[in-house]
């Protein structure tokens, strides 16, 4: 019997973490296909991009998994995945499955005006936030975008002093109080551990479309 490869269609913001988990756990049966992380700023485009990718890749893989939360699609991603018969990560945002669903709800309830960063978003804060929101060209927009926020919460996946400092700098730039919570990989790791490779006879592999 031979293992079937599982395709993981992932948000580009999770690529580094998924690759680290693959190496750490020896998940050789997984292949990673990343969509542009800048879709974070255009969530309305995510369902169509994910569905198109599923349909393009389905002939090549026996099992497909989507490494997105709802990510601001308002349930439209779940509608697409129900049509395609594909599962995704739990939760509404990547922040939630890093922190754990109940823990994230508690963090959010404590202070609704919270802006969240992960390791990825901290590394790419300038590209995705400053330039992505055109704050470099129109600094007056910073007040318009962030006037209702009171703190920046850095949910870290790794222990990295430079990233902590970068997240603090981001909080200072936005004029927000800083809080650091180390989450590790959270539900990202436990969810991926449930994705098991299928097996089938070697001879049947040559007949697959």
CA radius of gyration = 19 Å
What is the N-to-C succession of helices and strands? EEHEHEHEHHEHHHEHEHE
- With strands numbered from the N-terminus, the spatial order across the biggest sheet is 3-2-4-5
**Strand fraction band?**
15-25%
Give the class from helix and strand content and strand pairing. alpha/beta
Spans of at least 5 consecutive residues with low confidence: 199-209
The number of domains: 2
Q: What is the number of helical segments per DSSP (H or I, 4+ residues)?
A: 10
Largest sheet: 4 strands, parallel
What overall geometry do the principal axes of the alpha carbons give? Answer: globular
CATH topology type of the largest domain: Rossmann fold
Helix content percent band: 40-55%
CATH architecture of the largest domain: 3-Layer(aba) Sandwich
Instruction: State the end-to-end CA separation.
Output: 19 Å
- Total strands: the figure is 9
Quick tags:
alpha/beta, Rossmann fold, disordered C terminus, globular, 4-stranded parallel β-sheet, 209 residues
Question: Could you provide a short overview of the structure?
Answer:
The chain has helices at 15-25, 46-57, 76-84, 94-99, 101-110, 119-123, 125-131, 141-146, 161-174, 186-193, and strands at residues 2-3, 6-11, 30-35, 63-67, 87-88, 114-117, 151-156, 177-182, 199-200. The protein has 209 residues and is an alpha/beta fold. The strands form three sheets. It has a four-stranded parallel sheet with strand order 3-2-4-5, sandwiched between helices. Strands 6-7-8 form a three-stranded parallel sheet.
């Amino acid at each position: 019997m031979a293992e079937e490869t599982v395709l993981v269609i992932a948000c580009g913001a999770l690529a580094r973490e998924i690759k680290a988990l693959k190496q750490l756990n020896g998940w050789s049966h997984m292949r990673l296909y990343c969509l542009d992380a800048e879709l974070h700023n255009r969530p309305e485009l995510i369902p169509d991009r994910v569905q198109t990718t599923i349909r393009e890749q389905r002939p090549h893989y026996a099992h497909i998994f989507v490494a997105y939360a709802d990510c601001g699609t308002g349930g439209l991603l779940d509608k697409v995945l129900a049509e395609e018969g594909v599962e995704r990560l739990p939760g509404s945002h990547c922040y939630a499955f890093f922190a754990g669903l109940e823990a994230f709800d508690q963090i959010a309830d404590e202070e609704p005006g919270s802006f969240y960063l992960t390791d990825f978003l901290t590394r790419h804060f300038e590209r995705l936030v400053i330039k992505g929101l055109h704050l470099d060209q129109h600094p007056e927009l910073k007040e318009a975008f962030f006037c209702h926020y009171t703190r920046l919460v850095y949910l870290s996946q790794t222990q990295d002093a430079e990233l902590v400092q970068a997240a603090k700098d981001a909080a200072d730039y936005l004029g927000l109080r800083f809080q650091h919570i180390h989450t590790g990989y959270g539900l990202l790791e436990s969810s991926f551990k449930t994705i098991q490779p299928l097996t089938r006879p070697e001879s049947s592999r040559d007949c697959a479309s």
